[in-house]
Design a protein that fits this description.
CATH topology of the largest domain: BirA Bifunctional Protein, domain 2
Number of domains: 6
Mean pLDDT: 91
Radius of gyration: 39 Å
CATH architecture of the largest domain: 2-Layer Sandwich
Strand order of the largest sheet: 28-31-32-36-35-34-33
Shape: extended
Helix content: 25-40%
Amino acid sequence: MNISYNWLKNYLNIDKTPDELSLILTDVGLEVEAVEKVQSIPGGLEGLVVGEVLSAEQHPNADKLRVTKINIGGETPLDIVCGAPNCRAGLKVIVATVGTTCHPLTGEPFKITKSKIRGEVSEGMLCGEDEIGLGSSHAGIVELPEDVQVGTLVKDFYQIEDDFRFEIGLTPNRADAASHLGVARDIAAYFRSSYTLPSIEDFTETDVKQTEVVVENTAACPRYAGVNISGVKVGPSPDWLKEKLNTIGIRSINNIVDVTNFILHDLGQPLHAFDADKVAGNKVVVRLAAEGELFTTLDGVERKLSAEDLVIADADKPMCIAGVFGGEYSGVSDGTTNIFLESAYFNSVSVRKTAKRHTLKTDSSFRFERGTDPNMPLFALKRASLLIQEVAGGTVSSMVTDIYPNPVSPFAFEVSYTRVQRLIGKEIPAEEIKAIILALGIAIVKEDGDIIEVEVPAYKVDVTREVDVIEEVLRIYGYNNIELKSQILASLNTQEKPDKEVVLNQVADLLIGNGYREILSNSLTKGAYVEDEATAVKLLNPLSSDLDTMRQNMVYSVLTAIEYNQKRKSGDFKVFEYGKTYFLKEEGYEEKQRFALGIAGKITAEQWNTTANTVNFYNLKAAVDTIIKRLKIDNLQIVETTNPHLSYGLDYLKGQKVIVSLGAVASEALKKVDVDGQVFFAEFDWDLVIKTIRKNSIKFKEVSKFPAVRRDLALLIDDAVTFEQLKNVALKTDRKLLKSVNIFDVYKGDKLPEGKKSYALSFVIQDEEKTLNDKQIDTIIQKLIINFERETGAEVR
């Protein structure tokens, strides 16, 4: 939300600089994210002064140039070469002196330097309108009135005043501050001062042309006000109105629409102006739309309405989606001469649902969704009517219609001074608490010792309980005014072991050290990525079709990140992500913690002295094995994966549960996300990881004094036999002396029978109590050969 510094001065007598005021606004809960200087004329006419032409002589070397002497109030006149046809002695002119930066109406700014023009010295420039952004005329230099004093700053002569725009990060609960009036109220409360509302005393109404108004649904529209204004002339807005809107980033459209935008940002009350001559039957009906009723909005889009959408209609058709968007045919145009001006209070829930249903977000819906002031429509209507008459002419030609059958009451409840002090944590005097409450516009209707009865105005939609008033008191009193105590008391909870965050950081540090990067993806994803519709968690009001379902796996989060980078020529990818997956269950919802890895592209960057190899399955497996080793997880069984998103790979089982799946992402998944090339992906069940390592204990074993022995075997086996099968057979053969099994060579080629391959395995054998002899070693190797032959059909080569 943008707020103008000068605009606030309409309500307050401010003696604080913009920077000082930005700190105050942040202190009271309206966080200022940026302060930007805004100039109505680019450059603000800085550096330009009023001068007088003392003489204007013909340039000796140019027919169309004159050499002038210019008095700007200095000790000596300036020599300036000028080519303007209207340059003459005695003229008061605008002078850009050396060092001044001029901002022309078109083109880039340029700096004035001392120079020679056709051999004559020129110490500045006499300015035309277009050369300094003052206007579009290029006929000659600006001629100022004779009585203007030499040396006067041009910005003072034209009364150019710089403004400052505050960019405020408005939190959703602060609907009351979504306007200049709302911000002014907070500043006034901070200084315990008052603010001044604009006068509407000159508003008068007549009974010439009355538009009939019927409100059929008072639940969705508790208050509706309107008035007719006849004889207006639609055209450009005056400069002051354009500048006000421009300062806060609003583009001027025409004088009628600009007034409604001005009131919206001034008072926080959205308005809508209808072309009264286009209102069929001279009747306005506030009703629910018919299911499927078609309506074309201002942006030219035909929309199918819901029976829950509130519309403003005439006798025949809808003219506007209430509180959200106007219609294409009923709005103000260049030919409009009579208008019906609407000012209403709509139910916030109704507007919010309609805006989401049609994915429409406007300045009006922003305010109505959060809650507007039910007591503002009439004041805003009269204020806008006066402004329209001022900028567009016309007269009020009807009585004011104000349909308000059930007035909204203030929020009434009790507040205890003691509870205010206790919750804030400081003994603030009761009188000061009372002064802040009154300064906030909250009425105190009764006071009985420690207890006061308050009535909170309806525009403070988030202040409905005692604790809300306490929060209001605290933000005006100032969080910075609550001193920290020398002692802070806290209850310490025993941290469950292991600390999940510590474990996660250890694994993250390990991966980062190996060239991986962490990513963080949205938990919302496309419904097309769902693997089980029965357990999918769907959003009731999704922001878009791309964010309509809670993710059930991490693979599409990783693939989406890869696709984004590939399209930006950054396809080498090594990432990890920690996040949740979500499932619908009969008894409610289930969240599961997951830890995912993904690699794609080249494993290392291209270098002149190395080959940049493409990633493969074993690059990913090495990372997974490193994590498992770091976490000291053992006794895992490895089988072929059953993960539906992988074309091939492995599952590491802890008991009967999969602790991690890894492999090559299936082509179907790659096509869904439009990813090129191969991607290798691993996903840990992090809940199971934490549960597993919780049972780990630190074990110390003395280094054996006796040597280990290595023996190798080359086995001819079927293609279907895996190293994992061979390893399991070996470890079952001897559980005491056989310490490790490794594969160091694989061969498959012409010299082997069809369907066969050769594995070269190494075996490390060690007795920790004595030195092994050859007979013991040979016995173990023979047992291994027999078991390999019996259980896998292997042959020793």
